[in-house]
Amino acid sequence: xxxxxxxxxKKLSPRQKSLREKSLTVLSELRNTKSKTISQAANDNxxxxxxxxRHTNGFKNVNGKPVVKRWDRxxxxxxxxxxxxxxxxxxxxxxxxxxxxxxxxxxKQFLNTGNKTNLSKFRNKKVKDSSGKLHRLExxxxxxIRINQxxxxxxxxxxxxxx
Length: 163
Prior knowledge:
Layout: H1 14-32, H2 38-44, H3 49-56, E1 59-62, E2 65-68, E3 76-82, E4 85-91, H4 94-113, E5 126-128, E6 134-136, H5 141-150
Antiparallel strand pairs: 1-2, 3-4, 5-6
Helix pairs in contact: 1-2, 1-3
């Protein structure tokens, strides 16, 4: 049977998907903050250390202690803007996921400020999905605005009556 961290996203149960997302969040936190331990990061994300290890295989043993690897090959589904549309693609590793994350930060910055200079860093940049297909990241400001306008805003339900 294939280990959990090698299974494609489509073949995971909803519970397994949730555990993988939490595990990836723990890995990300450990890579970005050197002061946290695995158990602290796992507790912060309501997951056990055992589940983090089972769902990621993102650690190596150094002097008997688990240390986070610099990158991983864990498949994860991410949203990208490509060809004037927003798409969900299964990414094959953490390095590609980091590129997509940086792209989303630049897009968010563009949408908030209107400054499109940072978008040029991603011009002609392609990301490869887990099946090997290349997707060109959208850098056309007009298309990015149109994509953003198509995204539905979640309805806000008034919980407390303040009137």
